[in-house]
Amino acid sequence: MPPIDAYSHQCGVMDSFAEMVAAGVKPVALTHPQPSQAARDRYLPYAEGLADRYGVRYYCENGGLVTDLFPASLNRGTYNLVFYRDRAAIDAYLSIHRHKAVLQQAGRYAGRPRFSLAYQLGRLLGYSGSDIRRMVAQNGDREPVDPMPDRPLPVPCAGRPVEIGDISRKKDRFLSPLAALLEQTFPQAYKNCGEEEADALLSPGRVALGALAGGELVGFVGAMPQYGQTGWELHPLLVAPAWQRRGIGTRLVAALQQWVAARGCCCLYLGCDDEFGGTSLAGADLYRDTWSQIENIRLTGDHPYPFYQKQGFSIVGVFPDANGPGRPDIWMAKRIISE
Ligand SMILES: CC(C)(COP(=O)(O)OP(=O)(O)OC[C@H]1O[C@@H](n2cnc3c(N)ncnc32)[C@H](O)[C@@H]1OP(=O)(O)O)[C@@H](O)C(=O)NCCC(=O)NCCS
Q1: Which ligand 1 atom lies nearest to the CA of residue 245?
Q2: Taking residues 195-204, what's their average pLDDT?
Q3: From CA 329, how far away is CA 273, in angstroms rounded?
Q4: What is the DSSP string of 57-78?
Q5: Residue 248: CB within 6 Å of ligand 1?
Q6: 220: confidence class by pLDDT, cuts 50, 70, 90
Q7: Among 188, 244, 305, which is best to mutate for testing ligand 1, by the most ligand atoms less than 8 A from CB?
Q8: pTM of the full predicted structure?
Q9: In the prediction, which pLDDT does 146 show?
Q10: Where residue 156 falls among pLDDT bands split at 50, 70, 90?
């Protein structure tokens, strides 16, 4: 067999990846990590040609994305190209970076949220849920639990009691903080449009309750009536990452319930998407055995349905594939009894 030089070999790999991305087999594909920017940039002319030939695009990644999906040493400090076809795919890929940074900053890059990032990356690369779980389980080269152990973790609640209050009539003061909270907590949904969404959430006719710590907005819950005054949709609920798991979400939901009960609500409901394999319902055909799959739901990553169950909500249905194939919206509801 004639010798194959490394550069040509890599070009061949890129060619097949670009074709797979064009065909929708992989939402994104990563080229082989290179040790320097110059080494990666040698492939740009070839990548340019592939982009034209297959109708795909590529993103130049500097520094590498490390999750538990692959050995940390494979991608740490490397340079590569990320092929993608749809804008949403590269946005989702970049949001893994941001979400990881937020978790690390909050000292929460561990457990389910950490697994969830590896899971999201695996799904973007086209792997099945079971393959991802196996790869993560077999990966013996992981970053330390706290990759910045010298940095003191935030103790946000110290000395700052959290108060829940109506912020609906204070758009001037809370528009920007709410936009920032949305972008920080849901980067995949609100990146670059946090202000637009905050403006709608603080509009008349809606409930808008904020969790305030020394005047800083650290949580928010909103709702609006959708069936006269009897059926209200909770949207959205969010707590800043550094303040999560301290009972703030529970207090926001309790306050919201009182608020809507006083306005004639009988049913408070919400949809919680499973876009990133947080539950066993992701990747499943939910048109078949719908109720037995709902009854047997379990966490496979990070998802808030257990939080809502703890607040008395039940799963009352699903919209299969609402966010794309295998990415359902899970509907939950709670009976509200007016005083
Ligand atoms: C979901 C969220 C609002 C919960 O708020 P929180 O202040 O962290 O929750 P609490 O501290 O009041 O938690 C109450 C209980 O729910 C559990 N819980 C909270 N989030 C959970 C999650 N993602 N998965 C499983 N359990 C969760 C807590 O462990 C706690 O259990 P315990 O009472 O047995 O100790 C918050 O984590 C958040 O903003 N997440 C990101 C945005 C999001 O997912 N919003 C919901 C979209 S539908």
Answers
A1: 11
A2: 95
A3: 4
A4: EEEEEEE----TTS-HHHHTTE
A5: yes
A6: very high
A7: 244
A8: 0.65
A9: 56
A10: very low
State how far the Cα of 41 lies from the Cα of 53, in Å rounded to an integer. Answer: 19
Break the chain into its structural domains and give their ranges: 6-138, 162-335
Average pLDDT score over residue span 2-12: 92
Which ligand 1 atom lies nearest to the CA of residue 273? 48
> Residue with the nearest Cα to atom 19 of ligand 1?
307
> Does the beta carbon of 298 lie inside 6 Å of ligand 1?
no
Could you tell me the CATH superfamily of domain 162-335?
Answer: Gcn5-related N-acetyltransferase (GNAT) (3.40.630.30)
**In which band, very low, low, confident or very high, does the pLDDT at 154 lie, cut at 50, 70 and 90?**
very low
Contact in structure between 206 and 168 (CB atoms under 8 Å):
yes
Cβ–ligand 1 contact at 53 (below 6 Å): no
The CATH number for 6-138, chosen from 3.30.2190, 1.10.10, 1.10.4030, 1.10.287, is: 3.30.2190
Residue nearest to atom 28 of ligand 1 (CA): 245
Collapsing DSSP to helix, strand or coil, 197 comes out as helix
Residue 4 CA, ligand 1 centroid: distance in Å: 53
Whether 247 lines ligand 1, by a CB cut-off of 6 Å, is: yes
Answer yes or no: is the C-beta of 97 below 6 A from any ligand 1 atom.
Answer: no
Average of pLDDT values for 228-232? 95
Q: Report whether 146 contacts 51 (CB < 8 A).
A: no
Residue 97: Cβ within 10 Å count: 16
Classified as helix, coil or strand, 112 is helix
Q: How far is the CA of 306 from the centre of ligand 1 (A)?
A: 8
